[in-house]
Structure formats: structure tokens, C-alpha cells
Design brief:
Blueprint (H helix, E strand, L loop, with lengths): L11 E11 L6 E2 L14 H6 L4 E3 L15 H4 L16 H12 L3 E6 L19 H16 L12 E4 L14 H18 L4 E7 L4 H13 L6 E8 L2 H18 L7 E9 L12 H8 L8 H14 L6 E4 L4 H4 L10 H12 L4 E7 L6 E7 L4 E8 L6 E7 L5 E8 L2 E6 L2 E2 L3 E5 L6 E8 L1
Parallel strand pairs: 1-13, 2-9, 3-4, 4-5, 5-6, 6-7, 7-8, 8-9
Antiparallel strand pairs: 1-10, 10-11, 11-12, 12-18, 13-17, 14-15, 14-18, 16-17
């Protein structure tokens, strides 16, 4: 314990005696899986387990396992005109093996039905509309039956969430037909699956963003058919942390005002990621464009991305968001590895967040300044252990100070992620009531301060 000189104004009052309820650990989920890499090169399962994800969304996995017939409906049921009640018309074997890896890692499965994105330019094949929506719904029922009820020499796994399609509002890359046809398809499938599996969570539509004008006609079709999705899902790729943090409140308000029938409909943001621009990633793949998109402080593997992750994750603990899935498919670009199979700063941000998820309850944090780049998340585990996650996204302050209540006589230590440090021990000033952290450099930085007595 040392005595501090009150030079820097405190930015938050942190009160660890005020219990605000359990942490939402479903926010700590991803689309990443240990089978995302070429398995002949190495086994990433230990790294995967070390991140302690709650759930994994099974989208785009077929794209990152070349030649493997997994997950996507057209791989599991390749001949569309065949009888969906006949197990011999399905190919489950490869998907069984992939999902077993996830189960063995202790991670829950969130299964996306339909197809991965198809990046062909003009002609599209897997995203063509099903010939018969009712027939296709029977195929999907067979898939769910296989993994939850043991049908077709299957499993009795507790896979609660089943998502209908992905990004139909993107156009031909995901739904090669009129969006009005998707509304019809969604309603037919939702109604059929809820009929056989009322105990499971069936929903979607995994739209490209939260847009009330796009959701409204889909929900209108559901209302006419007297069927309610168990969850609504959408995606967001942005560098605007404040906008992303506030989307769940906007969505919940709109949904609740629309009708009381949606009071139990969950909100799931199941693709999200930091990105400055799509240039360099999907538009030409020039060498310099890709380098600029990926590397440096502002790149997708840089400290801005890592701090952005922790900033929005901290904010969502106070938002009406039921679950969130970081988009980690294609790990060398979107996930946690460098092109040399090292670990990037996004990995270290989720490693830091996984440490936060080992605590039980949220505590109270009251802002006492207008320093808007900073998000904090105080958490506790019993009366003698607490932690404070601090994510200063592109912040200009060199010193961060906090008033702390409820951890008097505790020992404290800190880890930092900044432009040159990855979960490195960091000096702090702590006298039992006030915490001061001096950043190593300007800009984005994240800290995890842990208290114990």
C-alpha cells in the first residue's frame, strides 16, 4: 500500500459492495472452432480451450475446411429431391466429427442451418432458393433430430439454438432470390421446426445489421402465420464502439414496442468484429491493401481491435443482449492467429476477457467524468476476490484513475494489452481506496486489475 497524491481526477466510482447480478457469460462466444485450421499442420484445441468460450456458432466452417462436407445443409443432404425421412439420404459423418470436437472442448453449439456465404461473383449455386420450402423444412428437421434425439444413429446432445439461414438481406451471395421469398421460407421453416421441437430455440434471420425496416416485414410475415421466433439475430462490422454497444437497447425497445408477443424473444448479435473498411479484404486483395487492413495499431490484428473488443464486451454487460458471437471464422484474417500461426492481439483480448468470465457477479461502476472512450466492468467472486476490466479505446488520457470501494486491505495487480504488450504485468498505484494506472503510451490500451485479500 502506498499513499497517492490526488493529482489526476478519478474517472469512475467503483463499488464492489454493490452486487448487480450475475455476469452474462453467453456474451463470451465466437464463430471460431479448433477445426478452423488445416488439421495436418497443428492442433489448436489447447488454445481454443484456454479461451473458455461459452458457445460456438457453426457458420462458414465449411469454407475453412477445404474439401470437407460439413455443417451446410447441402452437404448433409446433397440430393434435394430425395426423401428427408430416409436416413440413407443424409451424410452426417464429417459433421459428427467436427461437432464432437466442440463438445469435447466443453463449448456449447449454436447451429446455423442453411449455407455458408458464397463469394462467387456472378454465378451462384449453394445460395439458390430451395425448390420446395416445405420439403426443405423436413430436411432441417432431420438434421435437428439427428443431433438432439439420436435419429439416424445420431446423438442426444443439448444443442438448444438453431438458426434459420444467414444474411439473406445481403443478396445473391447468401440468398439468390427476392427477399420476399425469404420471408415465406423463414415462416414455413420456423413453424415446422417449432411444431416438432417446441423445447428448442429456433430463430434467425442473421441479417447483416440491425435495421428495423428490414426486420419489420419478416416479423409481419411471422405475425400473419401466428408464429414467434425464439430469437432474432443480426451482425455488425464496424470501428464505432459506441454504436455497436448501444444496438441491443435500440433493438429491444423497438421489439417491445411492436408487440408483447416478443417479450421472450432473445436478441443475439452473432457476428461482430472490428473493421475500418472492407477495402483490402474483399475488394481486390492487393498486397498493400491487405497489409494496411491487417497490420499496425489500427489494423484488424492491432491494439485498436483488441481494445475495441473489450470495450464493447464490457458495455454489453449492461445491455439487453442475450448472446454475442465474435466472428472468428477464417482464423488467419478474422480470428486469433497471424499468418505465421502466432497469436494476435485479438487472441489476447479474449484471453483477458476469459479471465473476467471466471468471476460470478457484476459490481457497480458510476462514471464521474465525460471521458467517453473508456469502458469498465467491475466483477466479484465472493467477498474477497474482485477484478476491474478497463478498456480505453483510442483514448487520449495518459493516466486513468478510479475511486474503489469494497476492496480495502486487498492486494492488487494488473495486466496490460497495448501496442507493444500482450497480457504483460503492469505497475499500478493503489492505496486501498484509489487506483491509478499510467499508460505506457497514448491511444488504445486495456487493463485487467485483480484484487484479493
Amino acid at each position: 500500500m502506498i499513499e497517492l497524491t490526488p493529482i489526476e481526477p478519478s474517472l469512475f466510482d467503483i463499488d464492489f459492495t454493490q452486487n448487480l447480478g450475475p455476469i452474462n457469460k453467453r456474451l463470451h462466444s465466437s464463430g471460431y472452432a479448433p477445426n478452423q485450421e488445416h488439421r495436418s499442420i497443428g492442433d489448436f484445441t489447447p488454445i481454443y480451450k484456454d479461451l473458455h468460450f461459452d458457445s460456438a456458432r457453426s457458420h462458414d466452417w465449411a469454407l475453412n475446411n477445404p474439401g470437407m462436407r460439413i455443417i451446410d445443409t447441402h452437404f448433409l443432404f446433397p440430393l434435394e429431391d430425395k426423401d428427408p425421412s430416409d436416413p440413407s439420404n443424409y451424410y452426417f459423418t464429417a459433421t459428427d466429427e467436427v461437432l464432437t470436437q466442440i463438445q469435447n472442448a466443453g463449448v456449447k453449439i449454436f447451429y446455423r442451418l442453411g449455407t455458408s456465404i458464397e463469394h462467387t461473383k456472378d454465378a451462384h449455386f449453394n445460395t439458390n432458393l430451395p425448390k420446395d420450402y416445405h420439403h426443405y423444412a423436413e430436411v432441417l428437421a432431420g438434421i435437428i433430430r439427428h443431433y438432439t434425439q439420436g435419429w439416424a444413429n445420431g446423438f442426444h446432445w443439448d444443442i438448444q439454438y438453431w438458426e434459420i439461414w444467414n444474411e439473406a438481406d445481403l443478396g445473391a451471395k447468401c440468398w439468390n432470390g427476392p427477399i420476399e421469398e425469404f420471408y415465406k421460407f423463414f415462416v414455413i421453416v420456423l413453424k415446422r421446426l417449432k411444431q416438432e421441437f417446441p423445447q428448442l430455440k429456433i430463430g434467425g434471420p442473421a441479417y447483416t445489421g440491425w435495421n428495423e425496416a428490414r426486420f419489420a416485414p419478416l416479423l409481419e410475415a411471422c405475425e400473419k402465420a401466428n408464429v414467434v421466433p425464439d430469437f432474432l439475430s443480426w451482425h455488425c462490422y464496424t470501428a464505432d464502439a459506441l454504436n455497436l454497444a448501444n444496438q441491443p437497447t435500440r433493438a429491444r425497445k423497438w421489439l417491445d414496442e411492436r408487440s408483447p408477443v416478443y417479450k421472450n424473444t432473445e436478441l443475439i448479435l452473432n457476428e461482430w468484429h472490428y473493421i475500418l473498411s472492407w477495402e483490402g479484404l474483399h475488394h481486390g486483395f492487393s498486397e498493400n491493401g491487405y497489409k494496411n487492413a491487417m497490420s499496425g495499431t489500427t489494423g484488424m490484428h492491432g491494439v485498436d481491435s483488441a481494445t475495441f473488443n473489450l470495450n464493447v464486451l464490457a458495455a454489453w454487460q449492461d445491455q439487453p443482449l442475450d448472446a454475442a458471437f465474435y466472428y472468428g471464422s477464417d482464423s488467419l484474417t478474422w480470428g486469433f492467429h497471424t499468418i505465421f500461426h502466432g497469436l494476435n492481439k485479438n487472441y489476447y483480448s479474449f484471453k483477458m476477457h476469459s479471465a473476467v468470465m471466471q468471476y460470478d457477479d457484476k459490481a457497480k461502476a458510476t462514471p464521474i467524468s465525460d471521458y467517453k472512450t473508456l469502458r469498465v466492468l467491475p466483477v466479484t467472486k465472493g467477498p474477497d476476490h474482485a477484478a476491474l476490466l478497463i478498456a480505453d479505446y483510442r483514448g487520449g488520457r495518459p493516466v486513468l484513475a478510479f475511486n474503489i470501494q469494497g476492496m480495502e486491505n486487498a492486494q492488487a495487480s494488473a495486466l496490460v494489452i497495448d501496442d507493444t504488450h500482450d497480457l504483460t504485468p503492469h505497475p499500478i498505484e493503489w492505496d486501498g481506496k484509489r487506483l491509478v494506472i499510467r499508460k505506457n503510451m497514448p491511444g488504445s490500451a486495456a487493463f485487467l486489475v485483480q484484487f484479493a485479500r
